[in-house]
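Quick sanity check, Pyruvate kinase:
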Amino acid sequence: MPGVLGRTYFKTTLTLPSLLEEDPHFTVPPSTKLVCTIGPVSNDVDTLTQMLRTGMSIARFDFSYGDQQLHQTSIDNLRKASKATRTLCATMMDTLGPEIVVTNRPSEPIKLEAGQTVLLTCDGSKQASSSTLPIAYPSLAGTGILPGRSVFVGQYLFTGSESTSAYLTVQQVDASDMSAVCVVQNSCVLEGVQLTVHIGNMKNTAPILSESDKQALLQFGKPNKIDFVALSFTRCAQDVKDARAHLDKIGMRETKIIAKIENMEGLVNYREIMEHCDVMLLSRGSMGNCVDPEKMFLAQKMLLRECNLAGKPVYVTRVVDTMTDAPRPTRAEATDVANLVLDGADGIVLGSETFRGKFAVACADTVLAICRQAELCFDSFAYYQSVMDFAGYHSINPDISKTEALATAAVRAATKLQAALIVVFTVTGRTARLIAKYRPQQPILTVVLPSKDADAYAPEDESGSSSAAAEAAAGAAAGAEDPEVVVPRLSTNGLKWHCTGDFVARQCLQYRGVLPVCADPSLGSPDGAILKAALHEANKRGLIRGGDRVVVSQCPRINERFPVMAEAGVVKILTISDNGVTPADPVVVHDDGMQRCTSRHVFGSQDAVHDCSDLV
């Protein structure tokens, strides 16, 4: 894709002396999302409460480590913390996948010396020692392992700075393809809860979901209504399809799939993977073992830019590794975090820093503080223009859908009018995703309404969600005790009503800049009492004040399947009064630039939309 690397969207009016000034108190939370890996040092209620108040958006439970009981305790404590803080938090379950680990380890650490040889073997009967490393893989045949290839062995969630990681070079592969002799490049002591093995440019033929993964999904993922499943070592689109089929089969239809790009196969096939997954995640720790250091930034910028242009959420790992043991990041790490924000990343994933680090809460706070400063320097209008130009939307006859037109109009209006907030009404979350795609500088308050569908969703007793999980989701929603902003509860009346508001709201946390809330449809129409309640919530959170302008985007939704919205798509501009209530009639902006007090599509279409494929 020509010119895919694009540019860095940086602008600032700051002067060097201003860097010495104390930062003002910010009422608007950072737009960049933060994923924290929950582990032994961070799974207690107190620590989780602090991390939620700091700004954690998604909690990650990595099944490469620990048993199911550990993760169940962690997620139960997360629910308690969410309820106590009245904070919405999504959950991510990270699978083991085709990951390779060292087996049959002794109780004591394994010491390796630079220059020695060690046998890497698939023979599971061998005992791990300083001369032999048995791995959990059936055979080296077909993997592409050759003399000269690199092999990395390190502890789970390695940072690269420990002395517990070994860099090996393949010297000879046995004729039986069951073992390979490797030369150790550095002296080290292999220790830690688990030793992972990464073979450079390996073709891994193991299934994307291991049997232990399938068991964990059924026993942990489904009952706990996990929002995202992260597929470790995603290699191709078929991996995503297979995982989707399995999730649907066991009743996890609403769970989104995150494709982790962390090996050469995934990098080569990332475009086809991007078309089928819901979120992309660049795992730089594992990827760094496959890509030359001097080329890593190219892979990163290329992946981020293509995800940005496609409107696909994209996350990056391994940012402040030194904060696993130190209270401050290095200057290079701090700059790395800022550059990720400027390059358009939706969010950042913390691994060892919050899993086993000594400063889990401080680390989350530091990363988000850096993100906030970078966002202040992010040229959102130049970014918007670049995405529009790439898509050809500035041409005379653009090939643009109604929903995309609504999104671009809302962002353009908010930018031109210097609005303080964008309010979005959505049922599936797609409207929020499309607006977030253009990275507006305004926070996107997303009001999630429930959907009615007699066939698309399974009944509640087949969904596998436990009552505890359902109660926790309700308690975690912002305003759970406020009649104006609640998780909707609907009853059946001849048709199967399935409330997906809590699921969609949590999943909207994946998008940069989006602040989701659930609304009770019994309040009335979206443009009436629900809008008023949303503005009241925004005022309470410090997002708006009297005199501010607010852009409201509502998707086209005249359809029996989605009866909650009573008008076609529209973008409205409101001015907030001193008491936080919108005065007079709203101004509706159409794509021709005219202002009218009406409610139609941005491009002036007078017809309602009945095609579900174009709804959001």
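Posting the structure with no commentary besides this: The radius of gyration is 25 Å.
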